[in-house]
Predict the 3D structure of the following.
Amino acid sequence: MDALGIVVMAAGKGTRLKSSRPKVLHAVGGKLLLQHVIDAALQLVPASAMQVVIGHQADLVREAMANTGVHFVLQAQQLGTGHALQCVKQAYLAAGAIPPENLIVLSGDVPLIRPETIDRLWQTHTRESAAMTILTAVPENPSGYGRVLRKSPSSAEVRAIVEQKSLTPEQLAHPDQLREINSGIYAFRTETLFRSLDALTNTNSAGEFYLTDVAALLTEAGERVVAVAADSVDEVLGANTIAEMMHLDAALRRATADRLMAAGVTIFRPDTVVIDSTVAVGPDTVLEPYVQLLGNTRIGSHCRVRSYSTLENSTVGDGVLIRNGCILDSAEVAANAVLGPYAHLRPQSRIGEGAHVGNFVETKKAVLGAGSKANHLSYLGDAEIGAGVNIGAGVITCNYDGANKHVTRVGDRSFIGSDSTLVAPLSVEPDSYVAAGSCITENVPSGALALGRSRQVNKPGWAQRLKAKQKEAKA
Ligand code: UD1
Ligand code: CA
């Protein structure tokens, strides 16, 4: 028999969110609630020892967590947290499997729980030889949570858990006496838990089978139920409403910003930046206010990211300057490049070392070689641009013919004059020139000048003649 298994309750709808998505598939700090909890649990047991109870939109939740390798237990009707554990028990019986000696139960909507704290719960549970060990906290405002009633204020032993909805008028009148909350995280001796589940009733105002009622049932049966307080309140806070989620989101992002600052990153106004915990930033890089760094973004050292830039799943080398208002989506930027202001690098953009992508330039699936410059008002899509190339203001690659995308190639050291359109498929060979205002539809050989526009005609005295005519007509 295994000593320990972990159950995560994640079947609830999340009525208080008023969202079409299940609660546990909402994100804080850029990561899904349930993923946070599973990641923490995986620090203690392998995925094979984990069961996630799913119910509301079960297929969506199963699909989102498929890569974790955990087992799923279906709670087709969500009749309460006690019923969720009844379903786990049924799953063991149906499979003819022997459950682990102890079960830790986590809530899918308590995402900031740290593995160290789960481990402390587990250590207390075994040390106290308890039937049930409850992780608790004493927050500023306990309202909404179940309250833990100890046998006496100094006792580790618990008499009962009372749900918020079941508090008596007298208890509600003395809120300061009932401040210790149930985190929704527990350790149980499995065999004792499973026996007590049969005795649960749903005769309460919510009409649910409460797992929390097990505490009183066990105490009355002479079993040992103890409480252990978490070190920090934040890590046991639940995410039941959007407001609660955003509170946790801010706490997580603040922790990420603190970690980066401790590692040598300067963050002006860290309360304004939005940085996912998965992001890495090198030392001596400066992040200005209102920067967003999301997903799998990696930024080197000695960079500066100016205000209102958003980088998602992008990689940036050392010494890069990203001016205000840039958007990078799955882009790669080599060392010492300069971007923006207001550059938009879409997926598969690869900007070479020391290259410039300037004001209002959009790139998509475009390679810009080392030292090349596209500084103003361009669209570069499906383009392979060599090194040392100058792309004039307003140059457009016409990559789409209405059905297919085609590639534009521009060789090293070429010069594309302003306001040219390069109609793909097209190859401009190295060391060539394209005259400003050209529409280029044929390949340009190396070293050539391509002109793709009609010759200019000047008509001397034309303007004076026009004005004279207009004057005559008026008279
Ligand atoms: C629960 C506790 C409360 C505690 C709080 C901590 C109960 C009765 N109350 O209240 O004492 O202070 O958590 O955050 O347990 N779930 C299922 N199946 C169900 C119902 C819920 O899997 O039938 C899951 C939910 O998806 C959620 C978790 O269990 O992840 C907790 O459910 P929720 O309804 O949020 O319980 P609370 O009212 O917050
Ligand atoms: Ca909850």
Summary: The pocket of calcium ion (ligand 2) is lined by residues 107, 109, 238, 240 (CB under 6 Å).
